[in-house]
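Lecture notes, continued. The same structure-token format from the folding unit now serves as the input rather than the output. Read the line below as a description of shape only.
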């Protein structure tokens, strides 16, 4: 076993939840860069069914049919 300390940390914004055929497909992340929200990646693995259900419930109040502000892809 190797223990490694992570000194580089960054805060990300959850930009959206992805679902494919009503199944959880991941979380889209963004980061602030020069006043813009820039695409930072997608996290797809490591979530339990309970965590996915909790995310769905919390995100339901923010659901929209269109994107409020598009993320710049750099």
């Amino acid at each position: 076993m190797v223990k490694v300390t992570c000194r580089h940390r960054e805060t990300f914004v959850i930009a959206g939840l992805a679902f494919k055929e009503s199944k959880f497909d991941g979380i889209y992340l963004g980061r602030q860069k020069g006043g813009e929200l820039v695409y930072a990646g997608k996290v797809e693995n490591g979530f339990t069914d309970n965590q996915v259900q909790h995310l769905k419930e919390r995100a339901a109040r923010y659901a929209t049919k269109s994107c409020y502000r598009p993320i710049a892809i750099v």
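Point for the exam: The longest strand covers residues 23-33.
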